[in-house]
Amino acid sequence: MKKRIEKSFRDADQKASPIEKYNSNVDRRTSQNGPLVFSAFVAVAVFLLVMAAGFALVGDFTVGGLAVAFLVAWAATMSVHIAMQWEKIVVFRFGRFSRVKGPGLYFTIPFIEQTALKADQRIMVTGFGAEETLTSDLVPINVDAVLFWMVWDAKKACLEVENYYNSVSLAAQTALRDAIGRASVSEVAIRRNQLDQELQEVIEERTSVWGITVLSVEIRDIVIPQGLQEVMSAEAQAEREKNARMVLAEVEKDISAMLVDAANVYEENELAVRLRTMHLLYESVKGSGGTVVIPSAYSEGFSDAALDKAIDGLKSGK
């Protein structure tokens, strides 16, 4: 039977998500070491004082004196307490709220007043997630997030909710699932910062009545199914190729328009064609550093008569 129980605990630990393991391994008992040591010191000190007083009065240690010392020491530990710097203590009297004490030394009346809650007012870190949650386009994704929050009103944290730590965790998980269900998978992946802000506002609205304020929410990881990752990558590549082709087509359109304008200029002015021919030949000779054989049909453009005609044409503005 014992082996079966141990095996079930191991299986549950293996199936637990990293967030659940993190939350289960958090040690929240560190603030109790100081108060426990102080209570032990008070009990021992009061016990010794009562025993010394009994010995001074009776002149001997008796069983009755020992019992009285024990009862007084027990009552002292129930009356004198300390709260750590980060703690707020909610005290009830006859089952009704009495006051909030701490940090430091505080007193209670035994059997009449009780400590209902020790609220830790440090910044708390709660990991939460949404596993296999469907987006608005019906894609199951896994999202892990971290919530930073703190208790600012210990009275409300005690009176308004049964277990404020678990309630905050469940409220954050529910808000995350709702936010994922309203967005598509691409929006969840791209709008991470906006999702953080939306979650913070929603969780803050739910937890403020419990005396809890939300400092920030941070999405740590978004896991999309492997098959969908390949499809989204192919879609992104196709979109980039489409944009590249559109830019190339726009450039070719501009170039063709400029070529048409140049052709119209050359058609109206034969001299411009010859000047362009001469320029091309000059660039060829300059680039090659050698000589170029010019066909006889083009050599006329370099004759003196042709040059004089070109000069006259430029002067006349033709």
Describe this structure in words.
The protein is of the alpha+beta class and 318 residues long. The chain is 60% helix and 20% strand. α6 crosses α8. The chain has helices spanning 2-15, 18-25, 33-58, 63-79, 154-159, 164-181, 185-190, 192-207, 226-268, 270-288, 296-299, 304-316; strands spanning 80-83, 87-93, 96-101, 104-107, 113-120, 124-134, 140-151, 212-223. The relative contact order is 0.06.
Record the SSE blueprint.
Elements: H1 2-15, H2 18-25, H3 33-58, H4 63-79, E1 80-83, E2 87-93, E3 96-101, E4 104-107, E5 113-120, E6 124-134, E7 140-151, H5 154-159, H6 164-181, H7 185-190, H8 192-207, E8 212-223, H9 226-268, H10 270-288, H11 296-299, H12 304-316
Antiparallel strand pairs: 1-4, 2-3, 2-5, 6-7, 7-8
Helix pairs in contact: 3-4, 6-8, 9-10
InterPro entries: Band-7_stomatin-like, Band_7, Band_7/SPFH_dom_sf, Stomatin_HflK_fam
Transmembrane segments: 36-57, 63-84
Domain Band: 78-236
State the main characteristics.
disordered N terminus; 318 residues; alpha+beta; 12 helices; 3-stranded antiparallel sheet; 60% helix; Tetrahydropterin Synthase, Chain A; 8 strands; 20% strand
